[in-house]
Amino acid sequence: MLGALLPEVAAAAPLAPANELGDPMAGPATMMPTPTLAPASTDEIYQKWSAKRRKLQIQTGVSAGLAVALLGTGLLALFAPSVCRDPDPDFGCGEGYGRFFTAMTVLPASVVTTIPAIVFGVRLHRHQKQRQVALQAGPGGFVLRF
Predict the structure, then answer these.
(1) pTM (2 decimals)?
(2) What CA–CA distances, in Å, run from 111 to 56, 86, 97, 107?
């Protein structure tokens, strides 16, 4: 039936059973064309690898930058010298707990943001190790792979 409707597709594509799971409600297994994929060229493979590498570099950099910024903000809020010279608690600088509360809020946030930085860094390292190399050591000498 499919061959009559689309003769060029039916002739070009290999046939595979449509009911692979053996579903009794689907009826008997019929033959459907399966698409075949052309092998990717080395340029396409390298472009995909480079795009993923760039994405992982950006994710690692943004995560690490945010962690460092939050850590610096927390440490600056905690240890920076105060310039307030008005001891009046009502109209002056207050009791001075704001800096401590700010630091105790921002420092745990910096610890939390280091987790994605570590995860993306490990993914980037593993991705770097999967890089295709043209000259590799093989049994009996070196092997050229392009």
Answers:
(1) 0.59
(2) 20, 35, 22, 7
